[in-house]
Structure of Nicalin:
Amino acid sequence: MANSKKPGGLREMLESMYSVIALLFILVACVELCDAAAAFDVYRLIQYDMSGSPFGSRFAALNHHAASLHFPPGVDLSRTVLIIPLRELNITFVREYINQKKPLGGLLVLLPEVLSFKTGGNNQVHEKEKMKNLLAELERLLIHSNIPYPVYFAFENDEIDTVLADIKKNDLMGQPATATTGGYKFVIPTAEPKKVASPTMTNIQGWLSGLKTDGDANQLPTIAIVASYDTFGAAPALSVGSDSNGSGIVALLEISRLFSLLYSNPKTRGRYNLLFGLTSGGPYNYNGTQKWLRSFDQRLRESIDYAICLNSIGSWDNELWIHVSKPPENAYIKQIFEGLSNVAEELDLKVGLKHKKINISNPRVAWEHEQFSRLRVTAATLSELSVTPELLESTGGLFDTRQYVNETAIVRGVKLVAESLARHIYGHQGKNIQIFADESSLAVNPAYIRSWLDVLSQTPRVAPFLSKDDPFVMALKKELAGHVDEVNVQHETLEGIFTFYDSTSARLNIFQGLDDLISLFRRPPSRKLKTA
């Protein structure tokens, strides 16, 4: 009789084991659904295609254990998320890992809080300067690489520093996190990215009409002041572009405000029309500028005396550069250069001239004025940049934040452009007359510049992720309308060689291995961070 009961007892024992195993699987699944030990906002590396070739981070979802740079040699990292603070980053290591296509579950780069547009980061000047070059080099590497795993950025804080310290301690003890040993698990439960369908661009233009005398049948000449407002960077959700080209936008708004004061009085209204253009698609060969200009009728295009494009004028010391496509000996170019040079000398500044001939057959457009030049309209770009930027560079990346912009530089840039324009409009060339003198009713307003610079420095502006009625676009339109007579908005589709993907930001949930599993039985789940 005893022997006949053994099979039943064995069967019950196996069933009990299977039940326990099933329960464990259920509990592991529950960990994914229950509250995390900690949760953070993270910002995904941009994903895009250029001429059909993939670039950036090609995945978004994450579900792996975390490790630091102290992982044991030869360990398999194909199911591991590396968490690396920027201050500890070895760019050679990252470059080799990417170029040699070594397997990795994911990468999380921790940025110093000083770079966060949410905190202001006015302290630790020496630290942010130290990080700038490293971050610029990392950004160039990441946006020009095809990376087959999720890459995210986050800002350091006390909670995530505690997590990282714990991970480092375990790695140094030779106890890397796994499903069996515990440790920290990083989870981003998000859908895989989808293509952005028909991304839009919005151009905003405003007019200040010149004074036309009775019997004057001819159309008044026009001067255009233009700035591109959108950005591009490694993390679209962080690309605020305080200098490139927030400084240009701020300068344009202030110049429009100053001339609106002059043009509101018939006695001081000039005999030039002033056209203000805030354009989109700047990082993508100034695609928006091209479409804006092609919407002009021939009569308007021919009326443009010249255009001044403002690009990155917020972090220079004593010299700005005028970039042109026409030869320096061209009469119109000489007029622009001499006008700016004379005012610069009075302001104790320097301006240099850089000539770069355009190639009509080459679709690459490095400067905004080149779109004007392609239509035979005289134009120049004023910039602190002396060297022509490469494609997708100097377009408002991770390091281009408020802390790196000097609002005094923008004030001086506005004075330079406004005085030069006014002397041209009112026929005061060569005369030492300050129309926008300090302490006068026409003085440049530093507070206005500062307030708009602060707004722009908290507003990511990557064109494919801005809708037609985006609050920022509407605010820009409203602000310009407060200074000029007539404002029009032009919506266009971003065309060309670029395709973009969504999922630019997410919430990272961090689970602390086996402890979280056990805690489900002991107490209600909590978001309070557990430390080792």
